[in-house]
Amino acid sequence: MGESEGRQSSPPPETPAESPAVTAVLGGRLSLSTWALATFDVGLFVLVAVLAGHASGALSDLLGGLNTLVGAAVFCVVWALFVLAVWWVDSRVELSASLWTLALHGFAAGAMAGVAFLLGLVAVLAVPALAEGLALGTATLSAVAGVALFLLVGVAVASLIGGAIGLLVGVLDGLCFRLADRVLAASAGDR
Predict the structure, then answer these.
(1) Is residue 1 assigned to a domain?
(2) Cα separations (Å) of 112 from 108, 151, 158, 163?
(3) Which stretch is the leader sequence (predicted)?
(4) Domain total for the chain?
(5) Residue 182 sits in which domain range?
(6) Is residue 74 in some structural domain?
(7) Residue among 173, 162, 181 at smallest CA distance from 81
């Protein structure tokens, strides 16, 4: 099976070059639909997370330990991961593909994004603390082993959680695409 199985679109028209950073990471342009879907998806994700946190009462404790800069940075990282995940799925299948195909690709992209988020957290929180402990001679082998065990279990959990979110988002994006297609077809028929 080829990477572009199910792709039925023509190549995009020539447009101005993307920034070198985007080209280096993605190898090409991001389409407007990728940006729009990723922005919609991350907005919905944050809304659901905030409502769930508020309903459980955990939101005030979580927000009490953050500041605006940290919150904005976390949002930007999550948004970038959503953009990359949507781009990855969009580069492999069309939104008109079966919901099953979108769900599987969404699961894979979400799992990768979940692991990337976890690794980012570990890099920001645990690695500097371990490096300082090793430099001062206060880090023990059990601390290093604890981080390794956390990563081992955390990667499995993060991939399952990210995969579940990706699966739901993939199906939601497919349903939104189908709805938009029907609305546009109906409005074109009214003219």
Answers:
(1) no
(2) 6, 14, 9, 8
(3) none
(4) 1
(5) 20-189
(6) yes
(7) 162
126: nearest Cα among 114, 140, 112, 143 = 143
Q: 81 near 41, Cβ under 8 Å?
A: no
Q: CA-CA distance, 147 to 130, in Å (whole number)?
A: 9
73 Rama class: left (phi>0) / alpha (psi -120 to 50) / beta: alpha
Assess if residue 41 is contained within a domain: yes
CA distance 172 to 178: 10
CA 170, distance to chain mean position in Å, is: 11
Structural domain includes residue 13: no
